[in-house]
Write a structure and sequence with these properties.
One of its GO terms (biological process) is G protein-coupled receptor internalization. This protein folds into 2 domains: 7-173 and 347-355, Immunoglobulin-like (Sandwich); 183-344, Immunoglobulin-like. It is built from 3 helices and 21 strands. It has helices at residues 44-47, 92-95, 99-108; strands at 4-11, 17-21, 25-28, 36-42, 51-61, 75-86, 112-117, 127-129, 141-151, 163-172, 183-188, 197-202, 207-209, 214-222, 231-241, 248-257, 267-274, 288-290, 317-327, 331-340, 350-355.
Length: 376
């Protein structure tokens, strides 16, 4: 028995338009991004001569919704593109780019029309900041949406009854690079001490995937006259956005021990392990997540990988990680680590139609009009 391909669908309230998409996560492979494609099914009787459009948008909300006062909204559209689907401006064959679209057009009939979008290079990936227990409304986030609607023209006000919106995610992927092993090597000199303190911090590799523990090797050679104690290792998540003048730091993993010490004239070699999991940070306000996710089985935000030629053009939030070693006397060594999302793609033969609901984006909070999926 051949595997089935799940296809997500969502229908407008007045049944005039319906959207079918084969996936909701689109991967940024560093050198290219998966295109957004799908099929729209229309009801000509409900349209009453109106045109049908489909829109792909990227929105950056840089303030909580309850901060919107006196007409000032803390959000910005980073990217919006709208295309007419019906009446069709080109032949269906020219707009059909994938096998899934071909199968859907054959299955859904003559009132089905394909659409296709490509992401520009200067867009960030989906990121949201985890809200606190008392926060209400929409939170700070970079969000992507595909919206289909009907109207006399694309600039008129969109009616909720005749429109349907689907939240999608743009997620980061990076192949594992085993050749690069980050390390930091630092020497500290103290007053009234003839010899220095030498600290070295190394990581086995640069790329760590979600759920993978981070093992760090610490080597401290204390030739000074001081005793070293209170050694701690932490992972720091750093995010910056268009409207924040300074970087924001947030610890996502921590290991501290009072037992390890390095007396004068001795050496310590030890491996420490950090666990960068959302399960240990689900109550921490302001930590960056992949999309608008809150459940413990979701992920911390992936590191941002941006092409050097468009780095200055990228808006939204940029994510990076580092490991920090600290000890008494404020000695610290830093080595960078990266956390990426590994994605495996396959294309089964058969199809199963399910209503597109953001419940499939684990942890998303929905409105009352969301329904459970159905299978056709």
């Amino acid at each position: 028995m051949s595997p089935k391909h799940v296809v997500f669908k969502k229908v407008s309230r007045d049944k005039s338009v319906a959207v079918y998409m084969a996936k909701r996560d689109f991967v940024d492979h560093c050198d290219f991004v998966d295109p957004v494609d799908g099929v729209i099914v229309i009801d000509p009787a409900q349209l009453k001569g109106k045109k049908v459009y489909v829109m792909l948008s990227c929105t950056f909300r840089y303030g909580r919704q309850d901060m919107d006062v006196m007409g000032v909204v803390f959000r910005r559209d980073l990217f919006v593109v709208t295309r007419q689907v019906y009446p069709e401006l080109q032949d269906k064959e020219k707009l059909t780019h994938t096998r899934v679209q071909q199968k859907l057009l054959h299955k859904l009939g003559d009132n089905a029309y394909p659409f296709f979008f490509e992401f520009p290079d200067n867009l960030p990936c989906s990121v949201s900041l985890q809200p606190g227990p008392n926060d209400v409304g929409k939170k700070c986030a970079v969000e992507f949406e595909v919206k289909a609607f009907c109207g006399e023209n694309q600039d008129e006000k969109i009616e909720k009854q005749s429109s349907v919106g689907l939240t999608i995610r743009k997620i980061q992927f990076s192949p594992e690079n085993t050749e690069v092993a980050p390390f930091a090597d630092m020497t500290f000199e103290f007053l009234m001490s003839e010899k220095p303190l030498h600290v070295k911090l190394t990581l086995p590799k640069e790329t760590f995937y979600h759920g993978e523990p981070v093992k760090a090797n610490v080597e401290i050679t204390n030739s000074s006259s001081r005793n070293i104690k209170d050694i701690s290792l932490s992972g720091e998540l750093t995010w910056a956005n268009l409207y924040t003048p300074a970087l924001t730091l947030c610890n996502f993993a921590y290991q501290h021990t009072h037992l390890d010490s390095v007396p004068s004239g001795t050496t310590l070699k030890k491996e420490y392990t950090l666990y960068p999991l959302l399960a240990y940070n689900k109550d921490r306000r302001g930590i960056a997540l992949d999309g608008r996710l809150k459940h413990e089985d979701t992920n911390l935000a992936s590191s941002s990988i941006v092409k050097q030629e468009v780095l200055k053009e990228v808006q939204g939030m940029l994510i990076s990680y580092k490991v920090v070693l600290k000890m008494i006397s404020c000695c610290e060594a830093v080595a960078c680590l990266s956390s990426f999302l590994s994605v495996l793609c396959s294309e089964p033969d058969d199809m199963v139609f399910e209503d597109f609901k953001r419940v499939y984006l684990k942890g998303v909070v929905y409105g009352d009009d969301d329904e459970s999926p159905t299978e056709a």
